[in-house]
Amino acid sequence: MARPRSLTDHRGAAAEPEPFERTRAIRTGLGALRLSGARRSVGLSVRSERPREVSLRFGRVRASSSRAGRAVQRRSRRLGPLEVVVDGEPPELRIFSHGEPVFEIAGEPPGKLSGPARWGSLPQGVVLPLRFAPGERVYGAGEFFGPLDHAGKEFRTSVRDVYGLPNDATYVAYPFFWSTRGYAFLAETWAPVRFDFGRRYLGLGEVEIPEAPVTVRLFFSRSPREILRWFWDRRGPPSIPPLWSYGIWYSRCAYRNQRELLRVARRVRSLGLPGDVVHLDPPWLDEPLPDALYAMGRRLGLSRRAVGRSAKRDPGDVYGGLVERAARRGLSVPFFGVGCTFRWNRRRFPDPAAMIRELHALRLRLSLWIDPYVPAHTPEYRHLQARDLFVRRGDGRVGLDFDRPSVDFGGVDFSQPEARRWFSDRVRELIRLGVDVIKTDFGEAVPEEGYGRNIAAPGMHNRFATLYNETVYRAVQSAGAEPMVWGRSGGLDIHRYPIQWGGDPRTYARDMSAALRGALSYAASGGAFTSFDSGGFGGRPSPELYVRWMQMGMLFSHTRLHGTTPREPWHYGRRALAIFRKFASLRYRLIPYLYSQSVSGIPLGRPLVRPVVVDFPDDPAASAEDEYLLGESLLVAPVVPGSRSPVVLPQGEWHDFWTGRRVASTLPSRDRIPLDTVPVFVRSGSVIALTAREWERAEPAMLLDLRLREYGPVRSATFDFGRYGRLRVRDLRAGKGRSGPFRWTVERADR
């Protein structure tokens, strides 16, 4: 495959940017500027296409020595309430809103160009020095798992497989952030962008974009919700997931065969537990073991035949046995990778169609695991390789990067229509078989120097995961099923194809906190629908951690129980099962509220789950990062085992969800909260739509008979259920009534 023509051929190395020593205007006003350096120049054009938006377009131009040396005289341009000013030597760009400076690309006087604040040029990109004000807080950039406020931190927006959820790496990478100073910054690129929010120098940072030309869009507002609405308007809004997806997902890594999966499904129903989805991970696939695994076997003194014989008994035992034996001998164990052939392992799953029919008879749906990597030594691999439909590494070979370079798999080149058609056909075959939803795992392993036929480096690495999820989403839709994915990774625009879950936390309290912060960071970046592995992925949680994580999941956008050990509630004792029943019942009673808030929230720039700062940016409670808003009316303060942090409520009147009583703004420490409850609060003046009875699974009929729970004085209420209709109650004092297909009864919670 020939490399696509591109201005970029980024190898991932951090090149030292060159300072721009002189600046000159090449047109009057701010229509275009040229910033000239010693060997390279960057052109800058400034435009305004929408109210309160400023677009900065950076492009490559040839330096002209005839005017070099002339400093820019002060140039300014008014754009409604905004004023854009460029002056200084080196240049400084400042944008004022109502006379106050809001956004600044800093300039420094000659002799001080060794610090971060200077215009600069990478070999194929630009560096923008930013100035941050005292007390300015910064949010967004994707799904990062540390503190939500990124001020004083540094991040690189490159998707990674980040087991254990470290603070500085992400599955979802967005070149987008917003500031409490009143602006949003969006670099329209899939290339990994480096954001320094003042890590090395107080009040000074940098944005490093490794490609040009590139457009940076700035939007000015003091309202984070207005910023997110602008972002969705620019990049496309999230789609609304199916109603049934708001139910409980039962899962494990992994149900090893058809018998085990059906046994779990039957037990869910025999215990009278609600649920909508059972998920099946990779054991359903028929695929060869990777060469890297055989190589590990050789290091342990095992023949290829011996490894293969063990694999026929149980691949999970082979992997685990090899890892354990290698660890005892002090050998490093690479991640071998997992591929997808789309062929059923008939030894483990002898009759997939019958299995799916039984699940559907139990009123459960099937979620099926796939990834975008095709194993070598398979017919599928040979077919795609013969047609040049794989992504290439920087050296031109087919291969991927896990925690090491690997040629055991080929990544499908989604930049090519033929490759997308091939992959889509395989997905549609699964949907026609009866599979209800696809889990789109992985997507991070294309090397940063990798490229496709139609997409060059450095853009292919992040964009690959977005294209992969989009391809599956549209294939499901074209097969006649309700479109959604259960996805993990993505670059810019992945929010349009929900939902995303937060990868692989371990079974520690710290990981529960990190999973929450990752989801809230993604929500602050424009992700409307999120989830995580309740109970943690790797290991076995204590009963207390399991219960607390499960409670948080039941009061989240979407909820799935998943991990490397059993996550079904009956494995954690009678008390855990009883608490599970309580919160599972609450989850299903809340689905009318959750779904209506999803539908009404998108036009308002309101992710279903979001950090407090999105609605209350100037409130003291905005700094709280271990509580969140659920819809317009609810605030949830999950209890992480060992946490002693108090619950802090935003200003205004709030009610306890459970009792209806009005509460104070600061509440006792969370270590005093009994295990069978979790702090949930309701804004005064709210009406929460609940089902009138218990439900076994989510279905449209649950929206038609409602209990409207009233907290505080309120006269009327409207509930938008999208495709299922709209309920408007003009006078709640009537106590009950009917409107079209809807029947409702009012409950006063604060009596």
Q: What are the key terms here?
A:
751 residues, alpha+beta, 7-stranded parallel sheet, 45 strands, globular
Class of secondary structure makeup:
alpha+beta
Q: Going across the major beta sheet, what is the strand order?
A: 2-3-4-5-18-15-14-12
How is the main sheet built? 8 strands, antiparallel
How far the N terminus sits from the C terminus, by CA atoms, comes to 71 Å
Unreliable stretches:
6-40, 63-69, 109-114
* Tally of contiguous helical segments: 13
Subunit arrangement of the protein: single chain
The beta-strand count equals 45
C-alpha-based Rg, rounded: 27 Å
Report on the structure:
The chain has 751 residues and is α+β, with helices and mostly antiparallel strands. The chain contains 13 helices and 45 strands. It is globular. 51% of the residues are buried. The model is unreliable at 6-40, 63-69 and 109-114 (pLDDT under 50).
